[in-house]
Amino acid sequence: MEYYAFDIDNDVTFMVGGIFSAQKGWQHSDRYHHGDYELILCTKGPLYITVQNTQYTLNQNDVLFVPPYQLMTGTRPSSEDVEFYWLHFILPKDTTTFKGTNLESLPINGQQSNVCVIPQQFQLTNTDHFIVFIHQLLSSDLQNVYDRKIANCLATMVLMEISKSIFNRLTDKTNNVERIDRLKEWIRVNLYKSPTVMDMAEEVQLNPQYLSKLFKKVTGIPPKQYLLQLKIQTAQSLLIRTNLSIKEIASNAYFENEKLFMRQFKKVCGLTPSKYRAQFDEIYHNNQVISPVLPIPEEISRHLNDVPDFGKIPEK
Question: If we measure between CA atoms, which residue out of 19, 52, 55 comes closest to residue 33?
Fold first, then answer.
């Protein structure tokens, strides 16, 4: 396994990204990464990819991080319909690559707040959270100097969230943390029931008052707020990825009624569901007819002028 580490005080440079979907039988075309990294988040698979001589099979929620100066090809046609997000960016110059190691062996303390560490391959446990970040990134107007800076910050945030997630998995090994983690997964599975704190307490066999204090200590928020946060994240994902009506989204995000949903959504997000959806209307979405391409802005291409045989795919 390879890991990539850089100082989070240095923003990454976002290049381009999009959403790709294709029917069964599609195969990824050849792509050569000229100085840029690519992050692929699979939301529907399997997706068969070979990077250099290493084969990967990406299923739902799997993420692959493709480094620069490497050839990526489709290993074979997909056995099912596929969908994935793809993001290209340039990492800071201080980026260090650790090859053939594991997270525990890295010479990096997980508590170092100034280091971002990205594994080459991993699986997300909560894609809705990341997809909302990614849609905010993809909706940026890269021709606007302010939006370009915001896009770079958002790209950095996406990678920081990934880094925080993998370090949390490494360090969160106490009994209380494991118990709350199990409860969080139980809440996610039973979100449609809108479980009360009493329901949660019964599930983990704790006093409701003690559970509330423990939950907040571990996660930083009370269990009721966590429940609402999951519902809002579900609604955000539905708003940006479907054409469902606001009433249908309220129901599918497990709110009691449309009015309650709209009131709580605006309180948490600062704008109405309709205005939130409108922010993401211009996202670059391609499909099997138009394979993922790299319309690299001139400002970005200047970073790559020193790359040999730019624009060519090397022979296998």
Answer: 52
pLDDT score recorded for residue 198: 93
Contact 2, 97 (CB under 8 A): yes
Is 56:49 a contact under the CB 8 Å cutoff? yes
Residue 41 burial by Cβ neighbours in a 10 Å radius (0-12, 13-18, 19+): buried
Count of CA atoms in the C-beta half-sphere (13 A) of 51: 19
> What span, in angstroms and rounded, lies between the C-alpha atoms of 84 and 22?
9
Distance CA 231, CA 68 (A): 38
Q: Which domains does the chain have, with CATH numbers?
A: 3-171+284-304 (2.60.120.280), 175-270 (1.10.10.60)
**pTM, whole model, 2 decimals?**
0.67
* pLDDT tens per residue, range 111-164: 556 888 888 888 887 777 788 888 888 888 777 888 888 888 888 888 888 887
